[in-house]
Amino acid sequence: MTFSALMKKPTNITLLDVDFSFDDEISSGSYQFTEANVREEYVNLAMPNKASTLLVQIKPPQRKR
């Protein structure tokens, strides 16, 4: 995904606790990434419910040599 595509519309995020027999949803939400997030290469998201924050790191793809 390109940075421009990432910034066009909100991104839905769901945190799951994956178990052998059942997957529990811990938290979910959406976030609209901005140019500032891309420049800083990360964003701290305040997640509702049980998770307090989620750190999302945004890195450009590495160029092939």
Description:
With 65 residues, the protein is an alpha+beta fold. The chain has one domain (3-57). The chain is built from two helices and four strands; from the N terminus they run H-E-E-H-E-E. The chain has helices at residues 3-6, 35-40, and strands spanning 11-18, 23-31, 42-46, 53-57. It has a two-stranded antiparallel ribbon with strand order 1-2. The chain has a two-stranded antiparallel ribbon with strand order 3-4. The longest helix is centred in the middle third of the chain and has 6 residues, at 35-40. The model has no long low-confidence stretch (mean pLDDT 84).
Rg, Å, rounded: 14 Å
Question: In sequence order, what are the helices and strands, one letter per element?
Answer: HEEHEE
Calculate the terminal CA-CA distance, rounded to whole Å. 21 Å
- The dominant shape is globular
Query: How many strands appear in the DSSP assignment?
Result: 4
DSSP helical segment count: 2
| Model regions low in confidence, pLDDT < 50 over at least 5 residues | none
- Helicity range: 10-25%
Average pLDDT works out at 84
Number of domains: 1
Structural category is alpha+beta
Write the layout of secondary structure elements.
Blueprint: H1 3-6, E1 11-18, E2 23-31, H2 35-40, E3 42-46, E4 53-57
Antiparallel strand pairs: 1-2, 3-4
Give structural attributes:
single chain; 65 residues; alpha+beta; two-stranded antiparallel ribbon; two-stranded antiparallel sheet; 15% helix
